[in-house]
């Protein structure tokens, strides 16, 4: 019954007990009550017994009931948010175990709420403000600004952090992030002492950090802060026995010139940071209108790329690999082109990087893979036994089902394995995981050839190169560009060619553009060439007309 407390119920119980004792005393005293005086004495005795019984029951039950009522009221207050008030003393006196349990419960709930609040506001790895907390604080700071002047948002992306996670593990990666946060705090404190106000640092996600400076005199100050961040993060990090060198690509957006809201500042700083990445990493870039136009063009290109795949706007061109002794094409590289409805013929250098960033490279790679498998099968049936090479990107190879999709395309078109060659970059080959190497080796045993592309642009481990399942190495054009005019270039190229041939692999020289280059390479010992001097990429029909060689059956003499 609502509103009835345990104390009132205890009082009712005491009254009932007193009344019962009164009635019993009265009944038992009837035998001695033979006259008015006897009845009076019996009545007095019954009243005394009932009263004493009532008082005793009320004293015993009501005190406990009052403590329980107090505990109930305290729990109701806690349910409405009061976790700080002490448990009433009468509860501790009458029900000590319950009092201790309530104090322990409230303490634990307070601790849990503080922990939840900390998780809601701070990044657990670095102790910095997390994305939601950072955005909330910056929006408040922008809303409270009354003075004239600049503010700046720095978008910081670590260079090379992924390799730390991959090689040293996520525990080392978390330790490194915490060290990065510590150095950013030092930069923020230095700027605060220089009059920039209380800088706010946040970790948005992964290896992305942000720094908001609420007050700056000019743009030069923003550039100076960016240099301070680069210097702080450019120093070597010591993780126990491991030494890690990092850098940072930084995008800078200033309030109000580059955005008068947090979302606009973040978008501008992000655009500037990506430009810093594309310009070679480990640098800082200020947002400009030109960068915004480039970003808009890149976004439009991403949308058009997906539409182009749906509309089948891509085609393949073929560039031969010539064996100079016989003059015949023994292989060919398939190169993708985009017949854009508004931009004419778009070269891969303009859209492949965009496809890499957006993830569309996987769908584009599947299109190339299917088209090459169909073409290779058709050539094999026609007797044109030239391997067709296709470039495989790191994003494609990172797909768990890449080799399954490749085999499915080969089976669907009945493509002979000997007609295909996979080209992977030097850096990708050096970092390839054991499982990927095993699958690549299995494919190679079935007859597919494997080549390393752009050799000389990365950092090769020679013992690693010897262990890779590779048939051919394609020397990058940068190694042969000056070979006809530079003795140093000839020495380097000769050493690289001798090394590759010494490991039992074929050498293909890319980017041959002059007869002088080719003559010098022949002296060094190269026989396989690919480049504009020999042939530019061309469509399938033109390629077959110029370079297809169909062996004729030998005629037997009669």
UniProtKB/TrEMBL annotation:
Bilayer-crossing regions: none
Record domain GGDEF: where: 149-289
UniProt domain EAL: residue ranges: 298-551
Gene3D superfamilies reported in the protein's UniProt record: 3.30.70.270, EAL domain
Domain of life: Bacteria
Short name of one Pfam family: GGDEF
SUPFAM superfamilies for this protein: EAL domain-like, Nucleotide cyclase
CDD domains, per database record: EAL, GGDEF
PANTHER family: BIOFILM ARCHITECTURE MAINTENANCE PROTEIN MBAA, DIGUANYLATE CYCLASE DGCP
Protein name in UniProt: Diguanylate cyclase/phosphodiesterase
């Amino acid at each position: 019954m609502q509103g009835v407390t345990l104390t009132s119920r205890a009082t009712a119980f005491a009254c009932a007990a007193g009344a019962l004792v009164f009635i019993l005393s009265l009944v038992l005293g009837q035998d001695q009550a033979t006259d008015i005086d006897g009845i009076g004495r019996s009545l007095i005795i019954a009243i005394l017994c009932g009263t004493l019984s009532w008082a005793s029951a009320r004293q015993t039950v009501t005190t406990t009931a009052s403590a329980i009522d107090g505990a109930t009221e305290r729990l109701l207050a806690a349910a409405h948010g009061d976790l700080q008030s002490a448990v009433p003393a009468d509860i501790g006196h009458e029900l000590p175990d319950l009092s201790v349990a309530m104090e322990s419960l409230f303490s634990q709930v307070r601790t849990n709420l503080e922990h939840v609040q900390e998780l809601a506001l701070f990044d657990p790895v670095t102790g910095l403000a997390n994305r939601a907390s950072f955005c909330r604080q910056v929006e408040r700071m922008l809303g409270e600004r009354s003075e004239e002047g600049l503010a700046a948002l720095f978008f910081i992306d670590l260079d090379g952090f992924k390799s730390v996670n991959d090689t040293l593990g996520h525990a080392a990666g978390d330790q490194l992030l915490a060290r990065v946060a510590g150095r950013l705090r030092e930069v923020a404190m230095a700027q605060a002492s220089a009059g920039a106000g209380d800088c706010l640092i946040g970790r948005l996600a992964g290896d992305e950090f942000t720094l908001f400076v609420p007050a700056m005199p000019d743009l030069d100050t923003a550039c100076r802060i960016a240099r301070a961040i680069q210097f702080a993060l450019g120093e070597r990090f010591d993780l126990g026995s491991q030494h890690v060198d990092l850098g940072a690509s930084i995008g800078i957006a200033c309030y109000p010139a580059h955005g008068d809201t947090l979302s606009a500042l973040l978008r501008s700083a992000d655009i500037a940071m990506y430009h810093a990445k594309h310009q070679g990493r480990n640098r800082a870039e200020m947002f400009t209108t030109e960068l915004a136009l480039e970003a808009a063009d890149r976004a439009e290109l991403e949308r058009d790329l997906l539409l182009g795949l749906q509309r089948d706007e891509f085609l393949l061109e073929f560039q031969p690999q010539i064996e100079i002794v016989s003059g015949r094409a023994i292989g060919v590289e398939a190169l993708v082109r985009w017949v854009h409805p508004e931009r004419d013929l778009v070269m891969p250098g303009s859209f492949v990087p965009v496809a890499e960033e957006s993830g569309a490279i996987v769908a584009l790679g599947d299109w190339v893979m299917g088209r090459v498998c169909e073409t290779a099968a058709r050539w094999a049936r026609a007797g044109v036994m030239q391997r067709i090479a296709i470039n495989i990107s790191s994003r494609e190879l990172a797909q768990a089902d890449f080799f399954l999709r490749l085999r499915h395309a080969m089976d669907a078109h009945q493509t002979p394995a000997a007609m295909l060659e996979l080209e992977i970059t030097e850096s990708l080959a050096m970092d390839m995981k054991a499982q990927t190497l095993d699958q690549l080796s299995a494919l190679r045993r079935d007859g597919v050839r494997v080549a390393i592309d752009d050799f000389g642009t990365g950092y090769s481990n020679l013992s690693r190169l010897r262990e890779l399942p590779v048939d051919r190495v394609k020397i990058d054009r940068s190694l042969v560009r000056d070979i006809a005019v530079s003795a140093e270039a000839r020495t380097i190229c000769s050493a690289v060619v001798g090394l590759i041939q010494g490991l039992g692999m074929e050498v293909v020289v890319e980017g041959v553009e002059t007869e002088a280059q080719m003559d010098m390479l022949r002296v060094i010992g190269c026989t396989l060439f690919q480049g504009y001097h020999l042939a530019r990429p061309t469509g399938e029909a033109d390629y077959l007309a110029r370079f297809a060689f169909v062996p004729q059956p030998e005629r037997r003499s009669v």
